[in-house]
Structures are given as structure tokens and as C-alpha cells.
Design a protein that fits this description.
Blueprint (H helix, E strand, L loop, with lengths): L5 E6 L7 H11 L5 E6 L2 H9 L8 E4 L4 H7 L2 E2 L1 H6 L4 E5 L2 E5 L2 H12 L9 E5 L3 H12 L4 E4 L3 H11 L3 E3 L5 H6 L1 E6 L23 E4 L8 H8 L3 E3 L2 H7 L1 H8 L7 H10 L23
Parallel strand pairs: 1-2, 1-3, 4-6, 7-8, 7-10, 8-9, 10-11, 11-12
Antiparallel strand pairs: 3-5, 5-6
Helix pairs in contact: 2-3, 5-6, 5-10
The structure holds 2'-monophosphoadenosine-5'-diphosphate (ATR).
Length: 297
């Protein structure tokens, strides 16, 4: 008798992760046998955990902060996206070998395609705010769609290091160049944690953006960050950060449980309810009851 497939989100801490809710919803609605849990693994235990993954009883899982790089280093094989990013967010065990991939960038693109169809067909470049791990995945994704990326970060040297990592296609700017760069942009992405949990978003004048520009934020607590609210006031299309979280989960679920799940409004509402956000009225500022982990898995 084969046992039910078990997957988990692996991080430290993991109790605020919404991944068990997402995968639990899909297991239930697709009527599949299997389980998905949270596994808290401390930093000093992470390497041993991933190296002996076959003994954990898990078929695979998601990797979240702070283990994405450690997981990458411990995989027997990684796909080309994970290799380009040096980080793994999805694991699957195949014939005793640990295979790692990274679906963060794809989740970002699928969320935009879903919520703002055609966002990349109007020409123009993408402006990215921030130069951390999330920015790395998003820049990779934008370059894969052939967009030119203009990068701004509080610590410029970090932005320069990231641009160098990708070679061509990423241009680093100082704040004095923001207005000119926004004029030619079709997408503005905030990848920084500014705007999370009631803190102010970065103070950026959105008026130079063209009318067709889309503004998106990877922060999803609150769902409508001050940046997104200002973009909406300007009449621009906005895409919130919850979509990226939901869409990045799709490929892992299919790998572990054998069916491709869908990102539905019902799933969105379920996750929003867990965040303490009862409805999606964009003008209501959500005060999340569990505000930790408002970005990432
Ligand atoms: P992650 O891996 O989730 O992207 P990170 O590596 O800690 O997280 O990166 C956070 C990003 O948010 C960085 O670009 C950081 O800027 P610095 O490189 O200057 O630290 C940016 N960030 C966080 N808080 C910010 C704030 N209040 N204002 C501007 N940038 C901020």
C-alpha cells in the first residue's frame, strides 16, 4: 500500500505561513489524498535537514525564509531558474534525489497575466524598487519576458551588485532619475518591505507614469498598500501581492499531488480571512491580525 503524499513548507519561523491553507484548500476541493504541513527548521539544522530529505517522510515542499539558498546548495539537481537565482523555493523528491526549482518569478508573472492581461504588450520598461531576494526573482522574470529593468534601491551598491549578476538589461539609478525613468515605464514593482503592516510605502511621485502603466507590490499585508492606493487614485491598474503568493504555489502542488490546481476567488477569500481581511474593499485599510510574513511563502 502506498502512503499518502506529504509535503510541507520549510522555514523559520513557519507558523505565519499561508502555504498550508493554500495547499489544504486545493487538496480538499480536488478531493485528493495527501497532506501539507508547516515544518519549522532552525538555521543550524537546515543543511542536515535538506541533505537527509529522503528520511523526512516528505515527498517535497516549499522553502521559505531563511532557507532558500541553503536548500539550493543541498539539492542533487536544480532547474535553470533556480540556478539563475541561486535559490530554491520548491522541492520534490524523485527516486531518492532532491530536485529544486524556483517558482517565485513565474508566480509573479502569472499573477500579472491573470490580473492585468496584456500588461507587457504596450512596450516600455519595468521599474523595480528594492534589491533583495524577492527583487532577484522578479528581475529574472521580467528579463525572461524581454523587458528592460530600471532598478532603484536605498543602498545603491546592493542594486549594482544585483545588476551585475544579471549582466545586461538591468540599469541602476539614483532617486533623482526616478521621474524621467517612470515616464517610459509600463510597470512599477515594489519589492521592498516598505508599506508592510501599516508602515508607509516608499514616497514616490507616480504622476510621471503613463496612463497604461500597471503598479504592483509584493507586500500583501495590507492588501492595498499605500503605494497601490495612490496608484488607484491616479487611475492606474494595480495588482496586489497576494496573487504572487497564490500563483507561485501552483507548480509545487502539481508536482506533489499530480493535479494542476487553480487560483480561484474563493481561495483568495480564504487566505484573506486568515489575514483578518474580511472583504476586498480596496479603500478599506486592512489591519492584519497576523501581520508577520506579509510577503513570500
Ligand atoms: P527580500 O529577500 O524579502 O527581498 P531583503 O533581502 O531584506 O528581503 O531586501 C529588502 C529590500 O527592501 C532591500 O532592497 C531593502 O533596501 P536596502 O538594500 O537598502 O536594505 C529594501 N527596504 C526595506 N525597508 C526599506 C525602507 N524603509 N526604505 C527603502 N528600502 C527598504
Amino acid at each position: 500500500m502506498t502512503s499518502k503524499p506529504r509535503a510541507a513548507v520549510i522555514g523559520w519561523p513557519v507558523e505565519h505561513s499561508r502555504s498550508p491553507i493554500i495547499h489544504g484548500y486545493w487538496l480538499k476541493t480536488l478531493n485528493l489524498a495527501g497532506s501539507y504541513e508547516g515544518r519549522a527548521v532552525a538555521a543550524d539544522e537546515a543543511e542536515a535537514f535538506f541533505r537527509s530529505f529522503a528520511e523526512t517522510g516528505l515527498i517535497g515542499g516549499n522553502v521559505t525564509i531563511p532557507h532558500k539558498e541553503t536548500a539550493f546548495a543541498c539539492c542533487d539537481e536544480v532547474d535553470k531558474t533556480a540556478r539563475a537565482l541561486g535559490a530554491v523555493n520548491t522541492l520534490v523528491l524523485k527516486d531518492g534525489r532532491l530536485f529544486g526549482s524556483n517558482t517565485d518569478g513565474l508566480g509573479f508573472l502569472n499573477s500579472l497575466d491573470h490580473s492585468a492581461p496584456g500588461w507587457d504588450r504596450k512596450g516600455g520598461s519595468a521599474v523595480v524598487l528594492g534589491a533583495g531576494g524577492a527583487a532577484r526573482a522578479i528581475i529574472w522574470a521580467l528579463l525572461s519576458r524581454g523587458l528592460t529593468v530600471h532598478l532603484f534601491n536605498r543602498t545603491r551598491t546592493r542594486a549594482e551588485a544585483l545588476a551585475e549578476h544579471f549582466g545586461t538589461g538591468v540599469h541602476v539609478h539614483g532617486p533623482e532619475e526616478m521621474a524621467a525613468v517612470l515616464e517610459g515605464a509600463s510597470l512599477l514593482v515594489n519589492t521592498t518591505s516598505a508599506g508592510m503592516g501599516g508602515k508607509p510605502s516608499l514616497d514616490i511621485d507616480l504622476s510621471p507614469l503613463p496612463e497604461h502603466a500597471v503598479v504592483t507590490d509584493i507586500v500583501y499585508t495590507p492588501l492595498m498598500t499605500p503605494l497601490l492606493l495612490r496608484a488607484r487614485e491616479r487611475g492606474l491598474v494595480t495588482v496586489d501581492g497576494l496573487g504572487m503568493l497564490l500563483h507561485q504555489a501552483v507548480p509545487g502542488f502539481e508536482l506533489w499531488f499530480g493535479k494542476r490546481p487553480e487560483v480561484t476567488d474563493e481561495l483568495r477569500r480564504l487566505v484573506l480571512a486568515d489575514m483578518g481581511v474580511e472583504d476586498e474593499n480596496p479603500h478599506e485599510t486592512a489591519e492584519p491580525s497576523k501581520s508577520t510574513g506579509g510577503m513570500g511563502q
